[in-house]
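One-letter codes give the sequence; each number marks local geometry. A record appears below:


***
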Amino acid sequence: MNRLILYILLFSSVSDLRSAPIKIGLFNSNQVTSVVISAWNGALTLSANDGDFEYIIDDGQAIFATLREGLITLNDAHGHFGSFQSLSVQGSDSSVIVRLRPASPQIEARNYEDLIIMTAENNRIRIINHIDPVKYIAAVVEAETGTRQTAEFYKAKAIICRTYLFANLERHQHEGFHLCDEVHCQAHKGQSRNSEILSAVRSTDNIVIIDPQTSKPILAAYHSNCGGITELAQNVWQSSLPYFVPVVDPYCSNSPNARWQRRIPLDEWINYLIRKGYTPNPDVAVDFYFQQLTRTNDYKIGNISIPFRQLRTDWNLRSTFFSISIEDGAVMLNGRGFGHGVGLCQEGAMEMARRGFKYHEIINYYYKDVRLATFENEE
């Protein structure tokens, strides 16, 4: 294992990296204007006005935080007790959970660890979780992959999630946090209490994947299922990265997301093509058939060419890896895989782990010519 001192964006030293909390924007795609705060497994301390106001939320008690006239108004079952620009909520010790249930819009309650900061801004309540990196990575692994996988898969996934985190710390810097809780960053749906996941995160603590050419963490992209072969990065993001090359993957072929099908009425398909610039020729029979045996960039028909990534977006498809045929007067899209296809195929990696592959073998199978490295304090 190569040893490496990593100075990561937004942190002044490796010591900061290991000890400073990660800031995660919660419910970021929702315009939350009301949220119920409650305590579990102990009491919470709610502070506002830089500590001038404090309130203890007892175990099982609920506080209602609602945006009104640009401030966060707080109420309990007995009435109103203050309006504030910002507030913080934290447990009396590390075992106490902050339970949040957005009421507007209505979202299922989630349990969070460490510190929650709420701020009234831009007609919403901005909610940020300041959380220890180990707890955050465990939460991401569970949210992204569930709780019934093998130890080696969880180890690989923990390293990938940690690498992705440290490679993307500036992604939401302009909004005051590092990453959000949505899948375009990494899914974070609250506390992980799974002992196998926590063990995998701790046993691989400080390990990241680096690009030997730059000595920086790679952009550790991953997806659900590649459909048998992973995708070039430039076909998705129009930028090339040396560790993202097509990888033939026989391990995901029998997984739940390996294949999909979509039926589209023929007239809808033709009208779509016309909107994209296709010019029908009544004197020429059109063959809509297209077979994609390996991943290609464009669907070519008549006088136009449409990128498969555009087709995926326009029709809300599971992947860009599909073939086209006509059956009973309809266009049939027969697809493979789920997701953008770049980097690690999660269902393939799960199968590799079940077959006995170790976490480093799984990582090096999907990310080419990379190295695993640890960061440590500089003496």
Notes: The two ends are 19 Å apart (CA to CA). The chain has a mean pLDDT of 91. The longest strand covers residues 97-104. The first helix runs from residue 14 to 19.
